[in-house]
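Audit log entry. Action: structure prediction of a protein-small molecule complex. Ligand: flavin-adenine dinucleotide. The ligand was supplied as SMILES and no pocket hint was given, so placement is left entirely to the predictor. Protonation state taken as written. Sequence taken verbatim from the request; no trimming, no tag removal. Recorded inputs:
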Amino acid sequence: TPVDFASHPKNATVLILGGGVTGVIAARSLAQKGITSFIIVEARSELGGRAQDAKFGAKGKEVTVELGCNWVQGTQTGDGLANPIWGLVKKHNVKVQNNDWDNITTYDMTGANDYTDLFFESEDAYTTLTVGAGTRVDKKLVDATGRVGYALTGWKPQTPQARASEYYQFDWEYAQTPEQSSWIASSWGNNFTYDPDVGGFGGDNLMAIDQRGFKTFIQAEAATFLKPNQVMFNSTVTNITYSNSGVNVTLKDGRFLLADYAITTFSVGVLQNDDVGFSPPLPDWKEEAIQSIVMATYTKIFFQFDHDFWFDTQMGLYADEERGRYPVWQTLDHVDFLPGSGVVFVTTTGDYSIRIESLPDSQVKAEVLGVLQTMFPHVKIPEPLDFMFPRWNANPLFRGSYSNWPPSFFSQHHQNLRANVGRLWFSGEAMSLKYFGFLHGAYFEGERAGFLLAECIKGGSCVEDQVTQDVTNCAPYKI
Ligand SMILES: Cc1cc2nc3c(=O)[nH]c(=O)nc-3n(C[C@H](O)[C@H](O)[C@H](O)COP(=O)(O)OP(=O)(O)OC[C@H]3O[C@@H](n4cnc5c(N)ncnc54)[C@H](O)[C@@H]3O)c2cc1C
């Protein structure tokens, strides 16, 4: 039954659904504009969302490891645009360390094998790919897959070593393959973050090694303005009823909340998988936009050993016969990070991550130990002291790690994804045109939603994203 919004007492002017970076920054932006009647509604017992860590390691040797986001990607070049996450990291003294992704040792099925020449060739091929995408934008050419782009710009990997090098440049960032990703959007995603020539922040990657957790940057920021009555923890939203006069949110425990407006910041994975119901059902244009973007998965698999027997560089790369099989390695037991921690981890992405999420821990552990034995044939790989990996895709609060833009996601889809339906607004990392996937994308989207909604509430203009009811083909098929 429709809710009679006029006759119920309101809990707040705005409900902010989700307490990740987007939700916290949306709240701060509302507050900055004088709107303080809001409540952040969060399923977990803390703020941060995908900024999430765990204590890991044997008794007496525990360290904090980041299960989700780990880097400030791009900082600032000269007086160009600064990454706002870097600003918060500095403001709240979060400990970060420069991570040189080119400081790498390469391995394959024969053990250590120096194919760094090929590795740097693949880095150049990636740059060429992004330049090619820029040309397509200038010429208004259609999008294509990253694979098409690589081939047309002359990169055709034929060996496991070349494929692993390509993986490092591409999948390790987008969490999907070049075949699954937009050539154009993946390129601007890279350039707007890393390339100062187009307004990007620059090439640095700062890795958080703060033992309070990377999440400190956003939790400490929240503490500067958020009052206890402006946040509800352990409150899982199951249904959102919306109209042109208000929004009503039902929680798992039966409580319900009423407000003039709501901003959902749930991941597109959550929206795609019906973890939250909408009444009335979302319009077709909205549903098509939600289903047309991808929630990709990026998985870090952590090991702690009694002692370090692996590479001295910051990074390691393993080329298997199978592309994407336990490829990218990082050591925390490095003089720049957490020396003596005994922690090393490997990352998988995309379909491979979904595969391992369905396996028992014991099997994944055995497989990765097998890979380590292949990488280090002369070492008897010891039994790890601890082992762990998060299952982001199966987690109903996330359903993956971050969004990736497929080649069939068009600019009208993007606008439709971001557009409000009645008084329900949509925000989150995936709504960011330039920075989808990244923490700074979440930040800028939260700021945008908070500022625009404050204007709207204060009776100024209610600027709305243009909705395209039907995303049509500019050159329809004639069959
Ligand atoms: C493994 C991994 C690695 C990453 N690495 C990086 C990196 O190095 N650098 C970088 O810039 N970005 C990285 N990212 C991406 C970055 O973490 C995200 O872009 C960003 O945190 C998204 O913020 P958000 O607020 O939009 O969404 P979220 O953080 O997902 O916030 C949404 C909130 O909603 C809550 N929620 C969900 N469902 C419900 C419900 N039904 N009821 C109530 N609450 C609910 C969730 O608990 C969450 O707190 C990574 C992400 C992952 C997972």
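Audit: result stored. The mean pLDDT is 97. The pocket of flavin-adenine dinucleotide is lined by residues 18-23, 41-44, 49-51, 68-71, 73, 236-237, 265-267, 270, 275-276, 298, 392, 397-398, 401-402, 428-429, 437-439, 441-442 (CB under 6 Å).
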